Amino acid sequence: MRLKILYDNEAKPGFESGWGFSCLIELEDEKILFDTGWDGNALLLNMGKFGVRPEDIGRIVISHAHWDHIGGLSHVWRQGMHIYVPHSISRHLRDELASRSHLHEVEGPQEICSGVWTTGELKNEIEEQSLVLKTSKGLVVVVGCSHPGVRKIFSVASKFGKISGVVGGMHDFEDYEVLEGLDLIVATHCTVNKKKIAELFPKAYVEGKAGLEIILE
Known about the structure:
The chain is built from six helices and 14 strands. The protein has about 220 residues and is α/β, with parallel strands linked by helices. A seven-stranded mixed sheet has the order 6-5-4-3-2-1-14. A seven-stranded mixed sheet has the order 7-8-9-10-11-12-13, with helices on one face.
């Protein structure tokens, strides 16, 4: 399994940066796009740098309906795709997506494909879903902004097994205790306290940015 960060506030040389987040999850026989950033042109450019075409993607998972996570959707969305969205997003957007794709309105935890689950729509001020990936070393949780709180997300994700890593945006997260014991921490996008996380967990921390590829065994 490989994770490729396609969109982030920061970028490696040759990649385009932009406010938002998108991560490609490459399985042996499937590619899942988690969020799409806000600028579809930048998303496509970064996909091209990785040698990924929109038609290679079979499923799209939207963490929540903020502009910086769905803005690039129209550039990669195609007829007949499977798209997973929180049930709480606007009816207009759901209707539009359902008219041209296989729309899955996510409420509770469920398996998306073998070894990949969604936490379901977790509620706080903003409803959001995260993905849970099975690896040989444990579960890796992929998050958009972690609006419901990392601890709450982990509480649901841990029902599928032991958590070994987290990748994505963690907003104004300060509940550092919940990260103890993780093998991989990739903080991206809206994570305010990246420096503090890096100081506390230097062996697990990896600086997230567009162009980063992570191999999960």
